[in-house]
């Protein structure tokens, strides 16, 4: 059986009865709470809106009165920052323009001497010129060249040039920050950064049939490309520690060569020694050990390495130190040698009359000697 329910009234509801003698509650606290809440919400919303707008680059450049805010100035960079070092160096870096080619260089004296690579000015004629970071240009003449060390000195016809600050390449260490300056791929006033990734990296370079050049180089991962040759490699204090000269590439030809994070610079101590001799005497002395060596590895027992002496000059530095033909030099000043290329490159790093410690193998015995290097007679 269905149980009936009470009908629901749809008529108007009676108004509640209010006691006229009951105390009335004040609305002031409620209004105050609403007002404070609205102010807090507005302030928070405005702050968040400003933060999001400035982070996204919208509306962050105008003051309340509509006046544009000043952009940060490069002049405010600290002198020891990367930007500060770049600003200091760029007036001393030049772009060297030779017919059909472009390279880099840097000013070493206020009277206009500039150091660059020999391969940059090779074949230069009266069309040799340089340009500075401010856009000014000047003609230049070749003072002297040393093809085997890949160093040349030119002089620019311009007054009031700014010279670089020179560092000590014997004091740098792997991991030190460096900047590379120059005109890679004709992009003038370019600065790249990296670190010293190796020291005394021995390199043999040169065109087939041309001059063979040997480097005991500073290796860096700063981006270096064609056109950087001759430009300075600079430490974090704005001092030149090397001259960018060689890149390693996976390309099949020079035109395909490009930066892969392996670039090599001539140590500035070696570059400046050669440059000063060119300026003072018109040519530079070549440092020798007084022996001919085999290159491409030793041909002795399996696993052996070192620079094998094919012949020793009777009165040369090696002979004076007691070395003989057939000896294999395995270390020079603690640097391991793989073959004759390493020995040639390291010897040329030092100045004539430098004394170096060598470790060598004669038969089954290992011996040591001190060798006073000499200058080539030619």
UniProtKB/TrEMBL annotation:
Stored InterPro entries: PDZ (IPR001478), PDZ_sf (IPR036034), Peptidase_S1_PA (IPR009003), Peptidase_S1C (IPR001940)
GO biological process, one term: protein quality control for misfolded or incompletely synthesized proteins
A Pfam family per the record: PDZ_2
Signal peptide range: none
Record's keyword terms, sorted: Hydrolase, Membrane, Protease, Transmembrane, Transmembrane helix
Family of the protein in this entry: Belongs to the peptidase S1C family.
The protein's name: Protease
Organism: Actinoplanes auranticolor
């Amino acid at each position: 059986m269905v149980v009936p329910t009470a009908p629901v009234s749809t008529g108007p509801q009676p108004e509640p009865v209010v006691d006229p003698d009951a105390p009335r509650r004040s609305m002031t606290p409620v209004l105050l709470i609403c007002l404070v809440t609205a102010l807090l919400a507005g302030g928070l919303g405005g702050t968040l809106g400003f933060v999001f707008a400035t982070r996204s680059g919208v509306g962050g450049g105008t003051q309340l009165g509509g006046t544009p805010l000043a952009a940060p100035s490069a002049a405010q960079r600290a002198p020891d920052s990367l930007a500060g070092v770049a600003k200091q160096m760029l007036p001393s870096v030049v772009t060297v323009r030779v017919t059909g080619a472009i390279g880099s260089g840097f000013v070493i004296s206020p009277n206009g001497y500039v150091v660059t690579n020999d391969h940059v000015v090779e074949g230069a004629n009266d069309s040799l010129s340089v340009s500075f970071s401010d856009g000014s240009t000047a003609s230049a003449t070749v003072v002297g060249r040393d093809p085997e060390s890949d160093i040349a000195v030119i002089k620019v016809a311009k007054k009031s040039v700014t010279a670089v600050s020179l560092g000590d390449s014997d004091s740098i260490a792997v991991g030190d920050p460096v900047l590379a300056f120059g005109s890679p791929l004709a992009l003038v006033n370019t600065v790249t950064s990296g670190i010293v990734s190796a020291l005394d990296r021995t390199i043999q370079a040169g065109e087939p049939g041309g001059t063979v050049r040997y480097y005991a180089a500073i290796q860096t991962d700063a981006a270096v490309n064609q056109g950087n040759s001759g430009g300075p490699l600079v430490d974090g204090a704005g001092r030149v520690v090397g001259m960018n000269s060689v890149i390693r590439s996976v390309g099949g030809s020079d035109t395909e060569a490009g930066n892969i994070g392996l670039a090599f610079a001539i140590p500035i101590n070696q570059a400046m020694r050669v440059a000063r001799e060119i300026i003072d005497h018109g040519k530079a002395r070549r440092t020798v050990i007084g022996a001919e060596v085999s290159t491409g590895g030793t041909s002795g027992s399996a696993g052996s390495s070192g620079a094998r002496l094919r012949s020793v000059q009777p009165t040369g530095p090696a002979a004076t130190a007691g070395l003989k033909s057939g000896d294999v030099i395995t270390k020079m000043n603690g640097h391991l040698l793989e073959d004759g290329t390493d020995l040639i490159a390291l010897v040329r790093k030092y100045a004539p009359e430098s004394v170096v410690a060598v470790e060598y193998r004669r038969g089954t015995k290992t011996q040591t000697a001190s060798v006073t290097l000499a200058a080539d007679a030619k």
